[in-house]
Amino acid sequence: MQQKENSEIDRLIEIQKKIVPEIIETLVSRYNMLRLIHYHEPIGRRNLASILGIGERIVRREVNVLKEQGFIDIKAEGMNITKFGYTSLGMLRSFIHRFKGLYNIEEEVAKKLGIKKVLVVPGFYDEDKFVLREIGRAVSIYLKSILKNDTVLGITGGQTMAMVAEEMIDEELKLANITVVPARGGLGKDVENQANTIAAKVAKKLRTSYKLLHMPDNISKELFRSLSEDPNIKEVVDYIQKIGILVFGIGRADKMAKRRRLNEEKIEVLRQQGAVAEAFGYYFNKDGEIVQEINTVGVSLNHYKQLKHVIGAAAGIEKAEAIISISKLNKNLTLAIDEGLAKEILK
């Protein structure tokens, strides 16, 4: 029944496209404007025009339409989205998704990669960095839909995972015994992008418990074994081994090598070896084959391969090869990406 209704909706949309071809452009334009007002509120017309890269006169005209229809309020300090506008924004996401044919693209990408599920958010991250927030939102919604009692939730670090925590709605789940843990040690300088910080923020949003791993990611195996004897660290390491749901960001090999502070000579060796992705203590080539092992703290590759619930997220067309590589490691992967990256993968 639902499939029949969706088919009828799709046919109606195709008719609308033919009768009023400009409807998509107008809808997407006003949706993006409403979305940016929400992200920046309160914001003035001049700043909004600057962010959108269009003339202030055009912005004034479109803003007046949004105001007249009750989507936004305009005050001295700037524009704010109304309660009706916020609710409508959620509904518009679904319409934009269907108007742009993203459901079909999701199925095509999932089939090409041979994985369980793909979530594609409208927009091109390479042109609009706020698309990353939409990916964070999509991941947080899907994550809540699969969480169950007595689950250890693991989450890695990075900018994309930080956005998952940021976009997660603060609410208490009617679930028992959920523990959030960092799925890898500390990496890089930005505290807000560390796995510890993100795990704590996600746990607070879900109003559940969490554990912190006070250990850098790139330490020697000998030092790791020594530190693991500490009761506090051992407890967290034991929790990591019990992770049932993993949420992680997918990174390019060369970018991750720089975060690990490898010199240019070693990065060049990785390039020559065909490394395109880094995860779970290894660098992989485009076929998902290991080209180099590294010292790392967190979820092991064997553990990852056995997980039934894994959610990977990435944005930007430069991540296409890394995604193709990582997708070969576990067919239970649910992938959240932007529209531009999805189309790049299909090339």
Automatic annotation (TrEMBL):
Gene3D superfamilies: 3.40.50.1360, Winged helix-like DNA-binding domain superfamily/Winged helix DNA-binding domain. Residues 98-347 form the Sugar-binding domain. Pfam families: CggR_N, Sugar-bind. One of its GO terms (molecular function) is carbohydrate binding. Keywords: DNA-binding, Transcription, Transcription regulation. The keyword Transcription applies. Residues 29-95 form the CggR N-terminal DNA binding domain. The keyword DNA-binding applies. PANTHER family: CENTRAL GLYCOLYTIC GENES REGULATOR, TRANSCRIPTIONAL REGULATOR-RELATED. Belongs to the SorC transcriptional regulatory family. This is Sugar-binding transcriptional regulator. It comes from Crassaminicella thermophila.
